[in-house]
Amino acid sequence: MKKIQVLSLIAALSMTAPAFAEGPGKGSLSKSDVTIGDCTASNVEVKWNLDSLMGEPMVNGSFRWDGEEGCEIPTTTVVWLKLEQTNGPGEGWVNIAPVIPEANGDFGYNVTGSPDWTEAVCGFNGTQAVNCVSRKEAKTFWKTASVTDFEVVW
Fold it and tell me: CA geometry: angle at 122 spanning 91 and 43, to 5°?
């Protein structure tokens, strides 16, 4: 009997899980002729999944790049995803820092992270986050913004 109750609870929770998850969502963008360190990428493609789980932000993303074979981009390279509010003037940036991929290869590896809300949406200066928004503002961004651009910095 307890087994049936547990299975019923798991089934009920799994059906409501999408109600707990909200965020800018999944997507991808590409740019041409991007300088990364001493390398010039003919194309950079970024993919992301920005979501939430049980009220906390979940950030995952990666990139791949095409360029001169053997050129190595700096290990400090990060990607900043630009969030723009759908119905408002606000914008902010979300940092993804995957394993740096080789030129003309596959996407770099990344593990989903959960930054504190007060560190989730910021401005940036190089690889450093600056002027992060409050917890309340970050949650509003998460619900009302979408990714519109990205910058690759090192």
Answer: 75
Amino acid, single-letter form, for residue 66: D
Report pTM: 0.85
Backbone angles phi, psi at 108, to 5 degrees: -70, 155
Longest dimension (CA), the chain: 65
Rounded alpha-carbon distances, angstroms, from residue 150 to 103, 110, 146? 19, 17, 12
Amino acid at 63: F
Q: How many CB atoms lie within 10 A of CB 122?
A: 20
**Bridging pattern class, strands 128-130 and 123-125:** antiparallel
For the segment 89-141, what is each residue's pLDDT rounded down to a tens digit?
789 999 999 999 999 999 999 999 999 999 999 999 999 999 999 999 999 99
Strand runs (DSSP E) across 10-136, as ranges? 25-36, 39-53, 56-67, 78-85, 91-96, 123-125, 128-130
Asked if residues 77 and 38 have their Cβ atoms less than 8 Å apart, the reply is no
57: β partners: 52
Instruction: Report the DSSP beta bridge partners of residue 85.
Output: 145
For 2-39, letters b (16+ CB in 10 Å) and e give: eeeeeeeeeeeeeeeeeeeebbbeeeebeeeebebeeb
